[in-house]
Design a protein that fits this description.
Helices cover 40% and strands 24% of the residues. The protein is an alpha+beta fold. The protein has 3 domains: 248 residues, 2-Layer Sandwich (BirA Bifunctional Protein, domain 2), CATH 3.30.930; 110 residues, no CATH class; 99 residues, Anticodon-binding domain (Rossmann fold, 3-Layer(aba) Sandwich), CATH 3.40.50. The strands form 7 sheets. It has a 7-stranded mixed beta sheet with strand order 3-9-10-16-13-12-11. Strand 12 and strand 13 form a beta hairpin. It starts with a helix and ends with a helix. It binds glycyl-adenosine-5'-phosphate (GAP). Glycyl-adenosine-5'-phosphate binds next to strand 10, strand 13, strand 16 and helix 13.
Length: 513
């Protein structure tokens, strides 16, 4: 645990030190759970967004994008169920006065049991070596089975109680499990209450005529209310999808873990409109497609798993999370939800406008069902960033900090370094920068010894360093150094563009899907 916390602290401080993420309003002591993306962070974030957009919109003939407004008519949130049901169950500790999400306290308790399972697996791996069969072990070892059963029983009871709005039972569960406040160690809890997560604001000049609005808590509703506009103007045929990326806002009770849970964040969502009755098939299809997208980035297959929901959101008939192994354990990265016709039917009811699709093949109208994929851009940023940050022991006994970002996502693709600041080398290096910057973000760096510059670029996540030296003057060649292997090779200046393109081209990465 301490090791995990240590690693996470390093991630946060590295993000600041290397210009990726800053605390918002830092000079005024910051705002809790609000962050700013810095000069490198904004590029990484943009590259992740583009990677998603390309895969979802550009590569699918039947998916188009929109960019709807953050402010929307307040009735939308009544229709969608957010006014009445977008709540988190909260509980206060009477001694520490700290507020918690009741479900998170219970989930954290289960995560501790899971740590015990992992310890058993580790021990057995050591004992049995190469002959160890993990799948067999976790399905037969009595201790592991006992732990797993305990987790399943707790989560299932919590899911049922939350679904029934039986908040008294959620409190009982916390008491029965003897969960203590992580801050004070006290078990002196208030009752569990529901807390609405939407931020309110006002539209209008005078106090009397102002209209109450909400900052959108998800981008999805902007897609639903535009469904018919897009379908008609784009002459879209079912099945088809509408995608959008944009800000969402939630007044999170437990806002912690850096950019994992923020109050202002960005989502990348896609609603896929389908024929009623086909939702199971599309649910499986999108689970597979989205997992492949994640795997194409090479962050490691073992770092992902599906987690099916026990407690379904008010709009869903099936839901799963793609969880990622963050420095603090497996947590939700993306949600895939079978939303039925809930949203469109609700908007029909509340707006009084028909939101139906006429199916020419079937010769009838119906309200389409919807399959949603929804991923937090900031969470994806954290997944990529934390997974990429490594400390490596080198052969000479020193260590290096390297940010092994997938090259396709790295903010700067190459750093161009003159070996020395004289003999005409800077001029050649600057010419290379001028030439490459039409195609890639590149940086020029001449300060400090070249070894230090390599280390700086390693920590910055730059996949290639290109060094101009005295041989360059003779034969127009440079050395290219690869961040991850530290290997170097001599290449012609005229070949640089193609070499870099090969490594950073979105197509080459997405083809791995
Ligand atoms: N439209 C469906 C929807 O919003 P969700 O599971 O509440 O579903 C989808 O959110 C994704 O948005 C999550 O998987 C997560 O990646 C991201 N997300 C949700 N709340 C967040 C928060 N407070 N901070 C950062 N990302 C968040």
């Amino acid at each position: 645990m301490a090791k995990q916390e240590d690693k996470f602290k390093k991630v946060i401080s590295h993000a600041k030190e290397y210009g990726y993420v800053f605390q918002s309003s830092e000079i005024y002591d910051g705002l809790s759970a609000i962050y700013d993306y810095a000069q490198n962070g904004v590029e990484l974030k943009k590259n992740i967004r583009d990677y998603w957009w390309k895969a979802m919109v550009q590569m699918h003939d039947n998916i188009v994008g929109i960019d709807s407004a953050i402010f929307m008519h307040p009735t939308i949130w009544k229709a969608s169920g957010h006014v009445d049901a977008f709540n988190d169950p909260l509980i206060d500790n009477k001694d520490s006065k700290k507020r918690y999400r009741a479900d998170v306290l219970i989930e954290d308790y289960c995560a501790k049991i899971e740590t015990k399972i992992n310890k058993e697996i580790k021990k057995a791996t050591k004992r049995f070596g190469d002959s160890f069969n993990k799948d067999e072990f976790i399905t037969t070892n009595t201790r592991v089975l006992g732990y797993q059963e305990k987790i399943d029983t707790i989560l299932s009871r919590m899911g049922k109680s939350l679904e029934k709005e039986d908040l008294a039972d959620v409190k009982s569960l916390i008491e029965e499990l003897e969960i203590a406040c992580p801050l004070s160690g006290s078990k002196n809890w208030t009752d569990v209450k529901q807390f609405n997560l939407m931020f309110g604001t006002k539209l209008g000049a005078s106090a009397e005529s102002a209209m109450d609005l909400y900052l959108r808590p998800e981008t999805a509703q902007g897609i639903f209310v535009n469904f018919l506009n897009v379908q008609k103007t784009g002459r879209m045929k079912i099945p088809f999808g509408i995608a959008q990326t944009g800000k969402a806002f939630r007044n999170e009770i437990v806002a912690r873990q850096f950019i994992f849970r923020m109050r202002e964040f960005e989502q990348m969502e896609m609603q896929f409109f389908i024929k009623p009755g086909t939702q199971k098939e599309w649910f499986e299809k999108w689970k597979e497609t989205r997992l492949k997208w994640h795997l194409s980035l090479g962050l490691g297959e073992d770092n992902y798993r599906f987690h099916d929901h026990e407690k379904l959101a008010h709009y869903a008939d099936a839901a799963t999370d793609i969880e990622f192994k963050f420095p603090f354990g497996f947590k939700e990265l993306e949600g895939i939800h079978s939303r039925t016709d809930f949203d469109l039917s609700q908007h029909e009811k509340f707006s009084g406008k028909k939101l139906q699709y006429f199916d020419h093949e079937e010769n009838k109208s119906y309200t389409p069902y919807v399959l949603e994929t929804s991923i937090g851009l900031d969470r994806m940023f954290l997944a990529v960033f934390s997974n990429s940050l490594v400390e490596e022991e080198l052969e000479n006994g020193t260590t290096r900090t390297v940010l092994k970002l997938p090259a396709v996502l790295a903010p700067n693709k190459a750093a161009i370094l003159p070996l020395v600041k004289k003999d005409g080398l800077p001029a050649i290096a600057k010419k290379i920068v001028e030439d490459l910057k039409w195609d890639f973000n590149v940086v020029y760096d001449e300060k400090d010894a070249v070894g230090r510059r390599y280390r700086r670029q390693d920590a910055n996540g730059t996949p290639f360093c290109i060094t101009v030296d005295h041989d360059t003057l003779e034969n127009n060649t440079v050395t290219i150094r690869y961040r991850d292997t530290m290997e170097q090779s001599r290449v012609k200046i005229e070949d640089l563009r193609d070499i870099i393109k090969q490594e950073v081209d979105v197509k080459n990465w997405l083809m791995k899907m």
